[in-house]
Amino acid sequence: MATYDYVIVGGGTAGSVIASRLTEDPGVRVAVIEGGPSDMDRPEVLTLRRWLGLLGGELDYDYPTTEQPRGNSHIRHSRARVLGGCSSHNTLISFKPLPSDWDEWEEAGARGWNAETMDPYFGKLRNNIVAVDEKDRNAIARDFVEAATAALGVPRVEGFNKAPFTEGAGFFDLSYHPENNKRSSASVAYLHPHMKAGDRPNLDLFLETWAYRLELDGNRATGVHVRTADGTERLISAEREVLVCAGAVDTPRLLLHSGIGPARDLEALGIPVALDLPGVGENLLDHPESVIVWETDGPIPENSAMDSDAGLFVRRDETAPGPDLMFHFYQIPFTDNPERIGYEKPEHGVSMTPNIPKPHSRGRLFLTSADPAVKPALDFRYFTDEDDYDARTLVDGIRLAREVARAEPLAKWLKREVCPGPEVTSDEELSAYARQVAHTVYHPAGTCRMGAADDGLAVVDPELRVRGLAGIRIADASVFPTMPTVNPMLGVLMVGEKAADLLRSDGSSGKSPDTTPHSTTALGGVA
Question: Could you say which residues bind FAD here (predicted)?
Answer without folding.
Answer: 82
